Amino acid sequence: MVLSTSLADLNIDDSIELELQGSILTLWLNRPESRNAMSLNMVTAIQQVFSQIADDSSIRAVVLRGKGGHFCAGGDIKDMASLRVEAANTGSLQPYVDFNRRFGAMIEQVDQAPQTVVVVLEGTVLGGGFGLACVSDIAISRDSAQFGLPETGLGILPAQIAPFVVKRIGLTQARRLALLGLRFDGHAALNLGMIHQLAQNDAELEQQLTETIQQIKRAAPLASRATKALLHRTLNEPLTSLLDDAAQQFAQAVGGAEGQEGTMAFIQKRLPNWTEQ
Question: GO biological process: any one (predicted)?
Fold first, then answer.
């Protein structure tokens, strides 16, 4: 499959696979033998992709999913073992710090991506995979998926994902899940507000994904990017200045090409031209 110009020259290893269909990029986590546990190579590859497409408005959505029936089992234990050797050889904890922070930077990058990020959750959704799911814009899950934050049971912390979990489901629930290391299924994830849609079988999962992509294509590309950025800003900026700036953005959108096309399509009772992209 031919990738866009922004992706064609990327030199990434086989820990992920990319599949581009029109304006929709699917990023497959591709380590099925380890239930797609996140290695440093995988983290680096994901960062490379999101850095490369940040300014590519032709890519409207990124779908994250895992090969082999699992989303992601968390961090790769083999990487942790090699870090232990490196830390012992250097007499420093810095290798652990650098690895952990690198993962957090990747999660933050996915969170801030201008594209609409969709996760398709199956099988294992643990630790870092749980964190990755928490920064999605739309989360679709099988009812049988198994979620959890197992870190405290392993004697470690969910250090980099904790802030994103709290933003997703709130402090009270995050405390309960993290401190007890609970495992739960898709029904509980839906009740927590972690996911948005639940599928009872694989066919329903694919159908919900297809419908979600159709809805993404109904939204204007530039308006979607600006809206996502605006929503992120609501958590950190004073309200009055934010609303002043939002009014300016609204005016520019109304007078811009997308606003004019959207208005005309509504009047003419047709779909706007961007739905075909």
Answer: isoprenoid catabolic process
